[in-house]
Amino acid sequence: MQKKVFYIELLRVVAAIAVIAIHVLGPYRYIVGDIPVSDWLSAISINGASRWAVPVFIMITGALMLSDTRSFSASYFVKRRVMKVFVPFVIWSVFYAVLAAISLQNVNWSETVQRLMQFPVEETYYHLGFFYYFLPLYLLIPILRPMAQQKSPDAFNALLAIWLGLCTARLMGMDLGLVEDFVLYGGYLMLGYALHKYEAPFKLLFFIGVLALVATEYTAISQSVSKGSYTSAGWFSYKTVNTVLIATMVFVLCKRWAENVSEKWQKRITAVSRHSLGIYLIHPIFLWPLREANMVFGMAWLSIPLVTLAVFALSYWASVRLSRWRVTAWLVP
Question: Which of 184, 212, 296 lies closest to 220 in space, CA to CA?
Fold first, then answer.
């Protein structure tokens, strides 16, 4: 496997782990006063250090799809790209609408009905919200691809610069209204392509990314402590420039580090990477008992990473098993 391809596989794995961490620590954020302050602050810190995960998934899509030099076929694109994600999303949405009705005390089918009625505009389970802003981004691929592959990158670079400006304005409180998700998430497609296509100044981007991470953590933690309750002060958003800079740092870091991974580990990581979407779709099943029992563990700085890795391993195992049966393989594409 070529290095430039392998680092994409590496990114998928680390992003999947980071997403699970965000969902593992979720309950910790809102129980300030009920757990030691050190555990609460640990959860906030891990949250801030993981917000790049969702943007990186979109950047991977941009890196691969905008660099594809084959002639664009709408039928192939819809059948092999869009529907491959959309159909499992619909089925899993129904499954999680059912799971949402089940608690350790009883079963409330009216909850399932309500969630299914809202399904066209609202996710049936917390992790499925990603697809509501990710799937529309496929509409941008046939528009951005020819622009990205023009001999002169001026127009593409100008559009990327405008997007960065909008992300900066978003951090300062600007609201783009109905088109905000489409525009600000869409920019990650361009960023992923640019970082994949060109050699970026690694040291500079790494330094800026670290500064952005420190500023993000400091602002969120200081504001939360001052307020006495969890708040990110807007800095944990996926659509703000600080998150853009952190995601850029992670992208170039994996691209650089991938060069040092042995062939043996490349094969292992690639095998796991193939199940990244399945892991994403499945992992809340293994978190369900913890959330239903309101279980949070002490020493959050250690327990959150350990639970994250355990859930990741179980989700990978489940995805592999589903993929081996023809009837269910399409559920974990």
Answer: 212
